[in-house]
Amino acid sequence: MTIMDRDSCLERLRQRPEFWDVIVIGGGATGLGTALEAAARGYRTLLLEQHDFAKATSSRSTKLVHGGVRYLQQGNVSLVMEALKERGRLLENAPHIAHNLRFVIPVYDWWEGPFYGVGMKLYDLLAGKLGLGPSKMLSREETLKLLPNIEANGLRNGIIYYDGQFDDARLAISLAATIADMGGTPLNYVKVTKLKKSGGLVSGVQAQDMETGEELEFDGRVVVNATGIFSDDIRQMDDPAEQRLIAPSQGVHLVLDGAFLSGESAIMVPKTADGRVLFAVPWHGRIIVGTTDTAIENTPLEPRAREEEVQFLLEHAALYLDRDPTREDVLSIYCGVRPLVRSPGDKGTAVLSRDHVLMIAKSNLVTITGGKWTTYRKMAEDTIDAAALVAGLEERPSQTARLRLHGWLEHPIETRGLLSLYGSEGPLVQRVMAEEPGWDEALHPRLPYFAGEVAWAVRREMARTVEDVLSRRTRALLLDARASLEAAPKVAAIMAKELGRDESWAKTQVAAYRDLARGYILKPTLTHPPPRAGSPLSRGAGEGL
Ligand SMILES: Cc1cc2nc3c(=O)[nH]c(=O)nc-3n(C[C@H](O)[C@H](O)[C@H](O)COP(=O)(O)OP(=O)(O)OC[C@H]3O[C@@H](n4cnc5c(N)ncnc54)[C@H](O)[C@@H]3O)c2cc1C
Prior knowledge:
Layout: H1 6-15, E1 19-25, H2 29-40, E2 45-48, E3 64-65, H3 69-73, H4 77-93, E4 98-107, H5 112-127, E5 136-138, H6 140-146, E6 157-166, H7 168-181, E7 185-187, E8 190-198, E9 201-209, E10 215-225, H8 231-238, E11 246-257, E12 265-269, E13 278-283, E14 286-290, E15 294-295, H9 307-320, E16 332-341, E17 356-360, E18 366-370, H10 376-391, H11 426-433, H12 451-460, H13 466-473, H14 476-479, H15 481-499, H16 503-518
Helix pairs in contact: 2-7, 2-10, 11-12, 12-15, 15-16
Bound molecules: flavin-adenine dinucleotide.
């Protein structure tokens, strides 16, 4: 039976403490994947997330399920092959959340056509049977037909290739629900504060309920640290002498109105002036432009874009789109931090390992970090193989390669708004939308969400705050930050009723959401001129795919 009800889960654990086989710390892609891997093998599994599922990096990606053309550039063929295999699996296991997307590389220089054409053929080859469609060269006319808003000046032709696209936070929720389907227990808003030890070995965790402050303890045979950019904090909880290994690197995305790139194809620029990959991708009726790669020192839960990153994205989007976007056109700006893993002597983060790293401490603490959303399942499989060995658990084979995720529906129903993302649960959501007058109406005229989805998120998806609903159950914050702010009081009122809270709770929630959402709104004018991004703008030249 699926139990996605936080209050009753906690109450059950208070009444009947369990001895867990596997305790996972962190509810992002890696932790959710790992907990699902463990639960699907029949291990008693608990997952603890300090905030909401996918609050950190896992809701802030470019939304691509991809082999990673840039890793091909770096010659990391095995990483690309593994990612392409996982791409195929994810599209099969979660067709309601991930789908095939056509990308076009616009060609402006004579050498780019043959060069990238050959590179994309290699990409096709590496995908093998799990390929999503063959790449091919396009004429200038064909390119303009697929990308009506591409900068036509100087355009020679284009290259088509295929990759996957998904909704990251919705996949996280589907994973949490699948963990529950498999008998595991995923809990949000429970922060691990200390590791319990017995004879020098980790034997469980101390934690805090972040809603009530209640101290909690959980015992288990193995603890997995899947806290992404925070993994060093947990490693140092285990042993304060541990060296810090995460080299955080932030990436910024701008969200623009869909009219900036009409049609159904994405733009991929393999090499900008400073050697980056740039995407402009249609997503939920908007266009996501990204991203940057900036080494940072700290790892806040709410990272913020730097002015030079905004300038870089606006200036480069203007190079490839016929209408130049301005600050006023930015509907939302969001920033995520990559948990890249340092190796001695590394300088820039662009050359750090994008592969995952699995570490087993003397205390038996298992740490899994790095990687990417696309490869979460393989990372999880490797982690639980190791964790089972460490814990002396009965050996059981992985079950996830073909495990259909919660809501699986082969042909997602075309329906209003974004209800297709619920997959097989779409009709149940619609039933909730019919319960109360007004629940069948849009939350806001500029958002593709309905009021009834708020009640569904509380009842079935463990949403606890207005931010949970507007940022991760729906993606309103990313689609239009200002509209989401205007919708917040309505969301708070529905949630207060569903959760049995009072008016002052709703007011506090709206105020907290206002503070958060301001960080996603780009100020229209600058008070100080920004520093110019390093090199002069050009479309890039020379080597590389
Ligand atoms: C800009 C950008 C774009 C990207 N684009 C893509 C893409 O298009 N496709 C792709 O495949 N990958 C992409 N990635 C990579 C992918 O998003 C990450 O690899 C992945 O989300 C990392 O997940 P994670 O679970 O390791 O970390 P996180 O999502 O950060 O999860 C770690 C969790 O641990 C929790 N936590 C921390 N401390 C504690 C504690 N003490 N107790 C309990 N919980 C705790 C945190 O709250 C957090 O939720 C992108 C990354 C970035 C930054």
